[in-house]
Amino acid sequence: MTAKSPNTGAGWLDPADDAPELTDEMMEVAEFRIGDKVIRPATGYLGPNGVVRGRPPSRDRAKQQVTLRLDPDVIEKFRAEGPGWQGRMNEALRKAVGL
Q1: What is the pTM of this model?
Q2: How many CB atoms lie within 10 A of CB 75?
């Protein structure tokens, strides 16, 4: 009969061991969910120096959201160039009006 050797593997390491400790400040701005249902939306984000509330500040003047109807082929052309198509469209409009 052969004897079973004991498990000599390194064992299981918890991948969360390197995760930072959650602070009360982080919990104050965190989004809470139960399944797919949002119980409380997030009220900030984690910036380089900790928790920052609200949307990240704009380097320039804040942009304005508008509703604009454009021909489908114009939109398809910009989207075909990949991510950042809205920014490229903004640059094309700036150039068109001489800014």
Answers
A1: 0.41
A2: 13
